[in-house]
Amino acid sequence: MNKRLVIEEIVKAATSYGEAIYRYRQSVEDVHWQKSSLENLHRWAREPDSDGRRKRLKREISEMRERLTASTAYSRMLSRRMARLEHAIEIKTRKLARE
Fold first, then answer.
1. What is the rounded CA–CA span in Å between residue 26 and residue 91?
2. pTM value?
């Protein structure tokens, strides 16, 4: 294979890897924020009930758990994508070194 094509493939893979790292870091921060928010909601739910506040908090807790589950799954998917892209870059770099 032509060296130029291999280099172009490496550049594309490296760009995708950089984007995946950025998205992964954002998703990890989002998961951290959601866990913190969920802890706060649980703390507020333990306080005495006022004007149906406890029902609203329970609904918010349920919604936050669903978002947290989805965000965690997305974060795991991005982690796997980063690993695949990192492996692809390694393989293409070795391929270029052989030529």
1. 27
2. 0.76
State the Cα–Cα distance between residues 96 and 86, nearest whole angstrom: 15
- Segment 57-94, tens digit of pLDDT: 888 999 999 999 999 999 999 999 999 999 999 998 88
Closest to 13 (Cα-Cα) out of 97, 98, 83: 83
Structure tokens, 54 = 């406890």
Q: Annotate 26-90 with DSSP letters as a single string.
A: HHHHHHHHHHHHHHHHHHHHTSPP-TTHHHHHHHHHHHHHHHHHHHHHHHHHHHHHHHHHHHHHH
Q: How far apart, in whole angstroms, are the C-alpha atoms of residue 91 and residue 71? A: 30
